[in-house]
Amino acid sequence: MKCHILSTLRTRTVLLCAGTGSLMALFSMYLITPSNEWSKYMLIFNMNIESSVTATHSLSSCSELFNELSFSANSTNSYINCCNDTELRSNNTGYVCNLTMQHRLMEILNIVKMPGINCNALFNGTPLAAAKMNTTGRQDDIPIKDIDYLNLTQDCENFQTTRGYIMSSLTQEEEDFPLAFSMVVYKDAEMVERLLRAIYRPQNYYCIHVDLKASDNFINATSAIADCFPNVFIASRRIIVKWSWYSVLEAEIVCMNELWKYSKWKYFINLTGQELPLKTNYELVKILTAYRGASDVMTNYKCIGRHNWRWRGYPVPFGLVKSVGSVHITANRDFVDYIVNNETGAAILNWTKLLHIPDEIFFTLLNANPKLGIKGTYTGHQDSCDKRLFMTRYKMWY
């Protein structure tokens, strides 16, 4: 597995790794913070994928799904070749070829090799690998202060160009498959803006929830950034978010309600302000198309006994099966519809306010109980206590 520097900040390095012959993502980015605490956001293929996808449609095997997703190996190079080939362009390949996009994609390809970094060790949580990552790479970028964004966004068109935003859907497939993102943020406008830039496409929708306790400079910066894009907005209701409290879940629900007003998007993905994508928008669309309507929500009900302390003695309503998981999901519109519009969904949400860390219970509870009638939820049989029972993210904490 070879690793390269994609970009650097004074306090962090973004790494891009390319692997061959692996079911994992072709492109893998890591965000390393000075405190050695890091998280990774990725869609990862594994052998549990069949039971997740067959929730709504049948696939004959995991290899069939992998074949559907094998596009990713040369997707960027294929785009460049298409844009350079007059005959291909004239044959309606679905690519939107313009010089600006071609130039930017070529810049991405022209990355610098990162010597001596073992990506497998990083995935396996080896502290030495993380420590080496923190001390490796170019540290020549000048950080952008929150207050600086007020000046940078005075001319939105110039801001979009100089910061490198992709202002085209690029392909017809992406145009026809818009996504909705929530971003729950509270600090470091530059990191938030880099995340937005990495996932931005004009056909998608972006809700940014800014913590009510965030600084004035931060909220002003994120508001100024959002104002430069018609499909990016700050959540109209802001709350104080505290870890393990209901407020973590509430911030997500706020954005779900506001994103629901836009009828075109196919899937909802929720993010924090300290993440970066491992997949291009094109790859996400291909992967989610292969899901055939299934949602990707971590669901763990086999080994629930160890989590009984979370329930605080309160019985689960409606005779539902207990489950624990992650607040971070990739959900179809039906899943979000049930949360924002269904009375039973509202009752379950209200019940979670009684629990400890409700954000790790609500989404997974809906996904683990197909009797609720939500399309695309889990209908398989869990035979493992593996904590990584979903593909949206691969998280490691140091």
From TrEMBL:
Keywords assigned: Glycoprotein, Glycosyltransferase, Membrane, Signal-anchor, Transferase, Transmembrane, Transmembrane helix
Gene Ontology cellular component list: membrane
Residues of the signal peptide: none
Transmembrane segments: 12-32
Bilayer topology annotation: Single-pass type II membrane protein
GO-annotated molecular function: acetylglucosaminyltransferase activity
Family label: Belongs to the glycosyltransferase 14 family.
Name of the protein this chain belongs to: Protein xylosyltransferase
